[in-house]
Design brief:
This protein has 174 residues and is α+β, with helices and mostly antiparallel strands. 21% of the residues lie in helices and 30% in strands. The strands form 2 sheets. The chain has a 5-stranded antiparallel beta sheet, with helices on both faces. It is globular, with a radius of gyration of 16 Å. The structure holds nickel (II) ion. The site of nickel (II) ion has 5 residues, from helix 2.
Length: 174
């Protein structure tokens, strides 16, 4: 595995519509493993292939919903999700406003309204169909990452974008 370079705006690959993955081969598996490692080292909660300069429809997400009732050491483990050719097939009418950052847009944050609940269909690394129902932050992360596959970045949808204070930056990293 190796860490790939995360591209930042205004790199045109971030504005391109990514193409469907058709080969679930060894080369794809290397890309997936590299993206997972790159996301962990960054660190980030999600990464889309265009962010490492590869215009294919693939996202990785690693996230655990924090349980405020529990102490740090008892928090649920993070879950890793790999979605190839992901599609949002269902979304709640209800939306929530939340704070987002992006590894491809360093030093900025924005306030974005996202659907509270979504259903995602796609394929795992072996080409097997998979489906996920997500809500809250997990739903937000997937909407953000899947947008990257359309060449959309969060400031396109944000009501407000700004350079955060040190405390805000800390909160968003979590
Ligand atoms: Ni992003």
């Amino acid at each position: 595995m190796s860490i790939r370079k995360i591209v930042t705006l205004p790199d045109p690959v971030l504005r391109r519509k990514a193409r469907k993955v058709t080969a679930f081969d060894k080369e794809l598996h290397t890309l997936i493993d590299d993206m997972i490692e790159t996301m962990r080292v960054a660190p980030g909660v999600g990464l889309a292939a265009p962010q490492v300069g590869d215009s294919r429809r693939l996202v990785v997400v690693e996230y655990a919903e924090e349980d405020e009732q529990l102490e740090e050491s008892q928090q649920p483990p993070k879950k890793l999700y790999v979605f190839v050719n992901p599609e949002i097939t269902d979304k709640s009418e209800e939306e929530e406003v939340g704070l987002e950052g992006c590894l491809s847009i360093p030093e900025l944050v924005g306030e974005v309204s996202r659907h509270s609940r979504i259903t995602i269909k796609g394929f795992n690394r072996h080409g097997k169909p998979i489906r996920l129902k997500a809500e809250g932050w997990l739903a937000r992360i997937f909407q953000h990452e899947i947008d990257h596959l359309e060449g959309i970045v969060y400031p396109d949808r944000a009501t407000r974008v700004w350079k955060p204070s040190a405390e805000e930056a800390e909160a968003i990293r979590d």
